[in-house]
Write a structure and sequence with these properties.
Shape: elongated
Number of domains: 2
Strand order of the largest sheet: 6-5-4-7-8
Number of helices: 3
Helix content: 25-40%
Largest sheet: 5 strands, mixed
CATH class of the largest domain: Alpha Beta
Radius of gyration: 28 Å
Length: 148
């Protein structure tokens, strides 16, 4: 414990002016570590392509690479046929609404389909037809680079 004199000048003995001080340095260190952890994890989620942890085994392809823009809509189709946008599993009706909203925000919105290699071709076509029915004309199928 630290001792100090009282402001009125008295406090020559220990019983008059005992002042307890709180050291906030360890608390500050903990907050800084937590802040760094949150910054790293949030940037990792953003850099994951907006899929929020959805793992899709893309088929190999050799076509030129396209670059997605902020307005593009990425639809992941899982191996069991479920469609996922932004980490949320969606039914076909929800996909229609999402496509309609994307079209109203930007007419040139591209739909990029990230279908698992094991997804039946018919399911990929069905999702693309839903997008076309809502007026989205720019469609792409994502592939992974062919390792040569």
């Amino acid at each position: 414990m630290a001792t100090s004199k009282l402001p009125d000048g008295s406090g020559d003995d220990l019983s008059d002016g005992v002042v307890a001080e709180i050291n906030i340095t360890p608390l500050t260190d903990i907050f800084l570590v937590l802040l760094i952890i949150f910054m790293v994890t949030s940037s990792a989620l953003v850099n994951a392509g907006g899929q929020a942890g959805v793992k899709v085994d893309l088929p190999k392809g050799g076509a030129k690479e396209i670059t997605s823009t902020q307005s593009d809509l990425i639809v992941a189709i899982l191996q069991d046929g479920r469609s996922v946008i932004g980490g949320k599993v969606m039914t076909d009706d929800e996909l229609k609404v999402t496509f309609r909203e994307a079209r109203s925000r930007a007419a040139e919105t591209a739909v990029i389909v990230q279908a698992d290699a094991g997804v039946p071709h018919g399911r990929v076509v069905a999702v693309m037809e839903l997008a076309k029915a809502e007026g989205l004309r720019h469609l792409a199928i994502a592939t992974r680079a062919d390792d040569k």
